[in-house]
Design goal:
The complex is a heterodimer of chains A (103) and B (564). Chain A has 103 residues and is α+β, with helices and mostly antiparallel strands. Chain A has two helices and five strands, in the order E-E-E-E-H-E-H. The longest helix of chain A is centred in the C-terminal third of the chain and has 22 residues. The radius of gyration of chain B is 22 Å and the shape is globular. The chains are: A alpha+beta (103), B alpha/beta (564).
């Protein structure tokens, strides 16, 4: 297991918290919570060691496109970059849906 | 026109819970954002999951309050660790509290689990004992419904929990058995069970076979509405028949009628069962096992201590592998039960004193005799002398429903405890896995001899290494960090479930003073049991448990706060 930390500047607050995915083979779990700070902080715990650079690229790309101030926790069980990006997008979508439901 | 089914199996655990509850009523408690993940996985280099693989959801089923407990098979094979186990047990305990307060909360458990999470070993074992205790208590008020959809199925100690449910629903894809195919192959060899033979596996323990052989109540398609309807049907019934795990006479006479001189195929087994329940079975006047001469008695600590304590004139040896006697202890009569080796046992996989089909059902019989006899009088104490190397690992055992036989024993001990009988377990040797769940873990008080050969665990090191894909060295390294993974009784004591660790006793050749000492401790334990609650809550109230099972306590506290 390896733990990685990343941080990105952000301006828009995440609408509501969101949880997606499962820590199962080739998949991952993401917890996203709104943050009061103008930053996105990501903690990754992954079962596969040595892919820090790949994680940095995948996450940087995602949070460059999506401006959300959030605390993000990722528990990974060997997901591919494609799956990671898809789950991140899903988490954003769920967050927006949750916000609509709450209204 | 083709109608596509709406798959239940393909859903994750959370969506399964949502699907079972009435639309729009799902409310998860102690969920991903409550921060209660397993504290034991990260130290072993394993990525945890925020809900520890168990979803507890409140909501409604047909407008009535309900709780759905859904196990996520994709996370660590649905293994039961300290947190996930406490979530299941705690939710069932709260459902029980509701019933006692006149609220008929409907409990549903979705089993998708390999059993105890081997990385948390004895934490899982203790939790499963508590889950079993809660199901037996809860079942008196409301049906406890189990669903086994697949793909993992339901194995290990959790298959015993499923065997205690009022009703079980299964798909063809689901499987239920005490030992998984890989474990049987590891323990008994490939000639006993070939774990790569998928057809053999499903024919033996798959949904269709289990339904035909009477081990489940409903066989349903993998379809959301079919599963919901099956659940609704069960809750709508005015009365649910007595649970399978308490039908001792039916099963004992059934197994007595089976001739084991030839291997029994799954189809043959179905046929025999159908004949039996139609009253057309062969009635064998013989007892389950052939008798033994005194010379044949294999030495074992269980036998030694049984004879030392139950110095009775009349020892029931009807089933030579399960000894039973009533004897005086101090001023009262006590029933002693021990499982011992029988080298001529017709089930060859239990000849070393393992708990098998006949052992489970016979223990249930001996315990239930006491419940019935003392129905209106003083409740006799029952002492389980524990020296069990494991449950039986064998093809016939799984085909014949070993999980159900173990559930019968669990059911009987738990029922006796709830009826007010002090149930005491005395561990004098090994107390391993499903065998210990069946014989010992339902006790009000567990006593153990403080001895190097007293071992408590969930699986042999070889099998545990194979299943968790680690070397034995790596496994031993992990036991240093997690006391629940260690095999010795002193590590087990740190979890707080022991009433007492008895020092300075010769466990192999007990002398008069050793026996006296143990008798005194038993008398004290029986008194304690009489003045204590009839459930297992004392295990978490002990001083050691405050530290040793901190997470188990915290999970229950959080569940109670969010239950409403």
């Amino acid at each position: 297991m390896e733990t990685l930390f990343f941080e990105y500047p952000a301006t828009k607050t995440l609408p509501r918290r969101a949880h997606v995915g499962v820590v199962g083979s080739g998949d991952l779990e993401i917890l996203m919570e709104p943050s009061a700070e103008a930053r996105t902080k990501v903690t990754v715990r992954t079962s596969v060691k040595g892919f820090g650079k790949t994680w940095a690229k995948v996450l940087e790309r995602f949070f460059t496109v999506h401006d959300v101030a959030a605390t993000v926790k990722i528990n990974d069980f060997g997901a591919t970059p494609g799956v990671v990006t898809m789950r991140l997008a899903q988490a954003l979508e769920v967050s927006q849906d949750n916000a609509i439901l709450k209204r | 026109m083709l109608f596509l089914k709406d798959s239940f199996v393909e859903l994750n655990a959370r969506n399964r819970a949502k699907a079972i509850l009435d639309q729009g009523t799902f409310r998860e408690i102690v969920g991903p954002f409550d921060g209660l993940e397993s504290p034991h996985l990260v130290p072993q280099g394993i990525v945890p999951q925020s809900d520890d693989g168990v979803i507890v959801a409140r909501g409604e089923i047909e407008g009535e309050p309900a709780v759905v407990i859904s196990i996520e098979g994709n996370f660590q094979g649905g293994g039961i660790g300290e947190v996930s186990g406490a979530k299941i047990a705690g939710a069932l305990e709260l459902a029980l509290r509701d019933q006692e307060n006149g609220i008929r909360t409907r409990p549903v458990i979705v089993f998708d689990t390999g059993g105890v999470r081997l990385q948390e070993a004895n934490y899982g074992l203790l939790a499963i004992a508590e889950i079993g205790a809660a199901i037996v208590a809860l079942r008196q008020y409301v049906p406890v419904v189990g669903v086994i959809p697949g793909k993992i199925g339901c194995f290990g100690g959790m298959s015993i929990a499923a065997g205690l449910c009022s009703s079980l629903i299964m798909t063809r894809e689901g499987r239920i058995g005490l030992n998984g195919p890989e474990v049987i192959e590891q323990e008994a060899g490939i000639e006993e069970f070939d774990s790569s033979d998928r057809r053999l596996i499903w024919n033996t323990i798959g949904g269709a076979q289990r339904f035909a052989a009477g081990f489940v109540d409903e066989l349903v398609d993998d379809d959301i509405s079919a599963i919901k309807e099956a659940i609704h049907r069960i809750f709508r019934k005015e009365t649910v028949g007595s649970p399978r795990s308490s039908q001792v006479d039916v099963y004992r006479s059934f197994f007595a009628s089976i001739d084991l001189s030839q291997p029994i195929t799954p189809n043959k087994f179905r046929e025999l069962w159908q004949q039996h329940i139609a009253g057309k079975g062969v009635h064998s006047p013989n007892s389950l096992q052939t008798g033994m001469n005194k010379d044949d008695e294999v030495e074992s600590r269980g036998r030694t201590w049984f004879y030392a304590l139950a110095h009775a004139l009349k020892i029931n040896k009807e089933v030579p592998s399960v000894l039973c006697a009533d004897a005086m202890l101090g001023k009262e009569e006590v029933r002693y039960i021990a499982v011992v080796p029988n080298r001529h046992h017709r089930f060859y996989r239990v000849r070393h004193g393992e708990v098998g089909i006949e052992e489970g059902w016979t223990i249930a019989k001996y315990v239930r005799e006491v419940i019935e006899a003392d129905q209106h009088g003083k409740k006799r104490a029952i002492v389980a002398i524990v020296d069990v190397p494991s449950q039986a690992y064998g093809y016939h055992e799984e085909l014949f429903g070993l999980h159900q036989a173990c559930a019968a024993a669990v059911d009987a001990y738990a029922t006796a405890r709830l009826a007010g009988h002090p149930v005491i377990a005395l561990i004098v040797g090994n107390a391993i896995s499903g065998a210990f769940l069946a014989h010992g873990l339902q006790a009000n008080c567990i006593l153990a001899l403080n001895d190097d050969h007293v071992n408590i665990h969930v699986m042999s090191k070889k099998s545990a290494a194979r299943i968790t894909r680690r070397t034995i060295e790596e496994l031993e390294e992990a036991t240093k960090k997690i006391p629940a993974m260690a095999y010795d009784v002193r590590s087990f004591a740190t979890l707080g479930a022991l009433h007492e660790l008895i020092d300075g006793v010769n466990a192999d050749i007990p002398q008069v003073q050793d026996i006296d000492k143990v008798c005194n401790r038993l008398i004290e334990a029986i008194q304690t049991a009489r003045s204590s609650p009839r459930d297992l809550r004392n295990r978490l109230a002990s001083k050691q448990a405050q530290k040793g099972r901190e997470a188990s306590i915290l999970v229950r506290k959080k569940l109670a706060e969010q239950w409403k």
